[in-house]
User: Which sequence fits this backbone?
């Protein structure tokens, strides 16, 4: 087992943001955290990464507590991409991605051929090789998001935490990013945990899904088991159903938009007039 979290609890003052959270992660596994806003997804990621103090519980990477590791040592094991990362606007894409190698290079060592090859791969994997000299303030929101993902890839950690990684990306780059996540897991054995809003994207790429509600994990299992659980309608307060789009494809959740959002009395027939 690569990562093991058990009984993880996080409190902010009198408010319990995460309660009794548990997770087991194997090499090459893709885990999705889904749930409504405020359900504890981001807090769970931050606690798993050792970025917030835990009132109770443990997080271990191959038997070692993440809370006992120094930041540089921990960075060699895991990379974390928050929802809204910050860097100086004048920093270039290439400079940002090179920072991802700090855990391996340090302050006084020079970048070797392997480091340069990893940086080039990270830029190429996100389609930003031609933007290496461009400052961050000259990028679109989606391009900037991809730059940060490149920096996380350059870190070459065995565990990758992504907090809403498809935010600001158009549908084409969302698909490319999810494909990249899948390839990293299968080809390089990287274990990925990502908080994500889009249920169907989670169903398409994740090996296991954790459903968060009110700071607790109310489901932990394979996508097919989630489809038959009936939890999605209750947790997200929507009406819909899972449908099979193809024999080998994961179930797709089809929301009944008219029943969920339409004013009282508005029907499909009235919308057609």
Assistant:
């Amino acid at each position: 087992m690569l990562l093991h979290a058990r009984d993880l609890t996080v409190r902010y003052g009198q408010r319990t943001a995460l309660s009794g959270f548990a997770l087991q992660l194997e090499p090459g596994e893709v885990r999705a955290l889904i749930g409504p806003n405020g359900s504890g997804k981001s807090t769970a990621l931050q606690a798993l990464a050792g970025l917030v103090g835990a009132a109770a519980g443990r997080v271990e990477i191959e038997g070692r507590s993440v809370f006992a590791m120094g930041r540089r040592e921990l960075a060699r094991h895991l990379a974390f991409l928050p929802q809204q990362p910050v860097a100086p606007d004048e920093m270039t894409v290439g400079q940002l991605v090179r920072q991802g190698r700090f855990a391996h290079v340090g302050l006084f060592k020079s970048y070797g051929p392997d480091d340069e090859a990893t940086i080039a791969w990270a830029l190429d994997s996100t389609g930003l090789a031609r933007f290496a000299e461009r400052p961050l303030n000259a990028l679109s929101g989606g391009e900037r998001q991809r730059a940060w993902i490149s920096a996380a890839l350059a870190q070459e950690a065995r565990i990758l935490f992504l907090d809403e990684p498809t935010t600001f990306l158009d549908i084409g780059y969302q698909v490319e990013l999810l494909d990249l996540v899948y390839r990293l897991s299968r080809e390089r054995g990287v274990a990925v945990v990502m908080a994500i809003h889009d249920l169907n994207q989670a169903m398409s790429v994740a090996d296991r899904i954790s459903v968060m509600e009110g700071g607790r994990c109310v489901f932990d299992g394979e996508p097919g088991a989630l489809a038959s659980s009936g939890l999605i309608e209750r947790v997200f307060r929507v009406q819909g159903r899972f449908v099979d789009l193809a024999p080998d494809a994961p179930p797709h959740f089809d929301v009944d938009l008219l029943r969920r959002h339409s004013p009282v009395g508005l029907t499909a027939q009235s919308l057609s007039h």
Observations:
- DSSP finds twelve helices and twelve strands in the chain.
- The longest strand covers residues 15-25.
- Residues 260-273 have pLDDT under 50 and may be disordered.
